[in-house]
Amino acid sequence: MGERLRFEVLGPVRAWRGDDEIELGSPQQRAILAILLLQAGTSASPDQLIAAIWGGAAPRAAIGMVRSYVSRLRRVLDPGHPAAVIESMGGGYALRAEDLDLTEFQRWLGVAREARRAGDVLAAATALRTALGLWHGTPLAGVNGDYAEFERTRLGQLRLTAIEDLAAADIESGRHVEAAAELAEVVAEQPLRERPRELLMLALYRSGRQADALAVFEQVRRLLADELGLDPGPDLREMQRRILVSDPALVGPAAPAQAAASPRNPTQLPPDVPDFVGRDEPRSRMADALTPSGASVPVIGVEGLAGVGKTTLAVHVGHAVAAGFPDGQLFVDLGVAMEPLAELLRGIGVPDAGLPESFSERVALWRTLTAGRRLLVVLDDARDAEQVRQLLPGSGGSAVVITARQRLYGLAYVHWLKLGGLGEDDSVALLERIIGVDRVRPELADIREMVRRTAGLPQVLQVLGTRIASRPGWTIAEAKRRLGRPDPGSEVLPPECGAIERPYASAMEQLSPAQARAFRLLSLTDGPDISPAAASAVLDLPLGDTTALLESLVDMHLLESGGLDRYYYHEPLRAFARSRAFADDGPEASQAALTRLVRFHRSEEGRLRAGV
Q1: How does DSSP assign 324-345, residue by residue?
Q2: Counting beta carbons within 10 angstroms of the beta carbon of residue 290, is it exposed (0 to 12), middle (13 to 18) or buried (19 or more)?
Q3: Does residue 503 carry a pLDDT above 90?
Q4: Are 387 and 295 in contact, with CB atoms under 8 Å apart?
């Protein structure tokens, strides 16, 4: 490639080869380069690039124009190896910049944070000055569009926070006058921002200007009342009170201004499962992938059927790699959390009073406070790509694990793993831990047959194993005879059936009426699998509509794809679906579906005999 490439986004978007600046071409080409740089090595699809550049006003030939812009950028960035800098990846494009001012800025912020934790205020101030020295004006200058404007706002918030942190460090180290001068500029630029006012009051007070410090409070009080109809926040009011009473703690160098958040190392992972077995390959892949590199944030997604063990695996791996994330581990159940972003912010030390009102400001604060920190974030039971996107931490040290019942499209940077049932040997090992080796080994053939019926689904094995363990007088053969779902209409449902089927019932709640009907009625067939044509007859729907329903159930892991044009159920799911067919659709509709299937097979047999 020759001389090292260097990129800048903390000002006009620029690129350098050695000491020579590269002519990047049109504003659209600069915009594409900026977007790829901000993706930090992850892939951006053509649709993402189009939306970022043109929004809803994209021209008809937008995809071709994007390809042309990328091709031109490749040639100017590295004429000798056009595809070496901007790679084609997953249907999109990715740029791994080794030298980017934003990455360096975030690295110095991390250095400052570590110095502050170690109590070295002077080192923290030096690191912050170095970080701020990388700025060259308005970030992404010359790049238009909503995406660029959003990123400008986000980066501007990062810069303001760094300036405030530097002022706090200067005040703490005795540079009151210098801090006051710098803060006066920030106040002029951001008159409604309260933390610079609070710091300015402290700097003035320590400089012997008590009256000026109180005047700052009075100015912001009037401004907030006139502009927003609000009173100053609790931190500002507390600073005014302490100045009025000449609080001795304000004078000493050991009393820094109160920060928006106290650093906290959360340990929120649920306890690991003591009976965890198997999953060697996904465990190894996840542990290897959860290694932050530069400005990137590794994101691993685990998809699979409800109850298959996604959360258990995520928690197990989280505990295994926790030492690599010394700043803490966060866990949020997105299925029940009312305000997951607020939970995450509280988890890293932001008090309720410090939570911004607007959601966009909370997102910006979350990324600002997590940039450069080594956090593991587990987002459990995710169901919406946009929600996940808003919860990703700042770059430079963190990693994320997502669990979801189906793959979330639109998150190009996620490496997905599909989780199925346990292998037969691992399933037997799990039952040995629950039931006891002394009961399992003598009847190993019966145990293996039971395992095959469960498809290795962990929650089924757990429930059946617990049930057998509670009946020490049963042989395994007797347990096989006794355990199982009773016929439809039975007045008593054994407790193990309810425990096994609870996740499946929850999954059904996410289905549309057409999907739920297909899931129920197709289970009535006796064959090991079914073709789209036969399914079309059962459902009495056109073939195209039927195929779409089948594929949607595969996406939800309620059906499995058994090769070209064949679909099948895992046995526990088939039993559950059949019970729901008789309960929800009724005997007449169920019989009608089977009658249509019989007619279809007779028609097919007739065609075969006729040689059609």
Answers
A1: G-TT-EEEEETTT-SSHHHHHH
A2: buried
A3: no
A4: no
Which two structure tokens, joined as six digits, stand for 1? 């490639």
Token pair recorded at residue 218:
């009075």
| Cβ proximity of 123 and 135 under 8 Å | no
Name the residue with higher pLDDT: 58 or 494.
58
Q: Are 277 and 316 in contact (CB under 8 A)?
A: no
Show the tokens assigned to 141: 């200058």
Q: Which residue has the higher pLDDT, 88 or 493?
A: 88
pTM over the 0.90 mark: no
Q: For strands 20-21 and 86-89, give the pairing.
A: unpaired
46: number of CA atoms within 13 Å, CB side?
A: 13
Which tokens is 540 given?
Answer: 């009495």
The alpha carbon of 269 is separated from its chain's Cα centroid by a whole number of angstroms, namely: 16
For 299-375, list the strands marked E by DSSP: 299-303, 329-333
Q: What are phi and psi of 92, to 5 degrees?
A: -130, -155
Q: State how far the alpha carbon of 521 is from the alpha carbons of 410, 527, 557, 559, 584, in Å.
A: 32, 13, 17, 13, 10
3 state DSSP class of 95: strand
CA 406, CA 296: separation in Å to the nearest integer?
Answer: 24
Confidence grade of residue 262 (pLDDT, cut at 50, 70, 90): very low
Q: Which amino acid is at 419?
A: L
Burial of 56 (0-12, 13-18, 19+ CB in 10 A): exposed
Assigned token pair, 344: 């995450």
pLDDT digits (tens, 9 = 90+) for 518-570: 999 999 988 888 999 999 999 999 999 999 999 999 988 898 888 778 998 88
Q: Do the bridges between strand 560-561 and strand 414-418 make them parallel or antiparallel, or are there none, so unpaired?
A: unpaired
177 has pLDDT over 90: no
Tell me which H or E stretch contains 14.
strand 14-17
Distance from C-alpha of 553 to C-alpha of 574, rounded to nearest angstrom = 13
Answer for the pair 426, 278: CB distance below 8 angstroms, yes or no. yes
Between 153-157, 262-266, 298-302, 431-435, the lowest mean confidence (pLDDT) is in 262-266
417 in helix, strand or coil? strand
Pairing of strands 376-382, 399-404: parallel
Decide which of 590 and 53 is more confident.
590
Residue 293 pLDDT greater than 70, yes or no: no
The rounded distance, in Å, linking the Cα atoms of 335 and 378 is 13
The dihedral over CA atoms of 282, 283, 286, 288, expressed in degrees to the nearest 10, equals: -120
Angle, vertex CA 165, rays to CA 217 and CA 98, nearest 5: 145
Question: Among 310, 307, 316, 301, which Cα is nearest to 270's?
Answer: 316
Strands 414-418 and 299-303: parallel
